[in-house]
């Protein structure tokens, strides 16, 4: 007989529940449904109407030059006051489009049986673009041109890529703030100014090395742009002296080559000129050699050349704008004094210094020599003249700007507060502090932080 005082033994059926998951669930049980579909939708509509501004304004994030970019959460005033800043001016090379998907050895119109053209070296990427003078190695593969995919301008993705490159440059890592503004137009800009702070630690990456960094060079090739880096300061934006080379800078000609045409020695003189501008020959020695070939040329050749010389695009407008800003302007030329003075009159330039050719007073022809009493305007002399003109006008060297294209301009470019190699020879582009290969000299004003509207007002001021 079973003992009724003992509890009943549990059976397997009693231990079972409706669900194994329900017995072992780790989440809250579902909320019972007490509303119909109309009530649910009505509550959601009321919540949306109640939230008028989901993002509260934060005035601490506003900077003086535009938009803050960061891959991290922005904190209020993360950088101390007075932190150094660097300005990168990005120019889109609209006149030099990169054709997509073309092997460097194959032209676009090649057909079966055609002879392939020689490989080309990108301008500014090697001391020479002559394939006979570089090592017998295949040319480096070109990066994929991205401007034809994302737009022939400084696109948002182009700017984002540049900011990513900046974030990877400092070693060790430093917190960085960046901002940007468009200098020519807001829609599809060709010139964008990017300010970032702090710059890379100079103990790991000096500023001169930053300007020539491989990652920035590759970025330029990929997006078909040029990047000019400058330390931000009041002297970047407010300069007072501008010094220019003449031949192939303010004018599109090489004067000594034009003179050589008169006596049929253009080829010989042009070859020496090209080698001298590339830095392959001593400038003073090569000048004397070229001048010697001009013996017997009539002295009035300079008057005849005035109608032949072509002033570079934007030179007049650039000089006009600089004069309105109160600049002193000088042309320091390895060419010849009569034409330098003529150009100064045309452009409103204050100082003109060049070489003096000796003239035979009897025959009124060139003797093939330089006047002994005047120094040769070579690289050293150009640098000395830059400093002396600045000193005479009480202008700090930081408030000077120099522009040139040849090897004899390099010392001057490095000495100036801003030195620009304008459409320069390959070696000069590699060694100069900054380089530009634009279509108009007026683009140099963007390096001073001037926008399109600013430039328009300056140019129209003196008309």
TrEMBL record:
Source organism superkingdom: Eukaryota
GO biological process: L-serine biosynthetic process
Active site: residue positions: 245, 247
Keyword Hydrolase: yes
The entry's keywords: Amino-acid biosynthesis, Hydrolase, Magnesium, Metal-binding, Serine biosynthesis
EC identifiers of the protein: 3.1.3.3
CDD domains documented for this protein: HAD_PSP (cd07500)
Name by which UniProt lists this protein: phosphoserine phosphatase
Species of the source: Penicillium alfredii
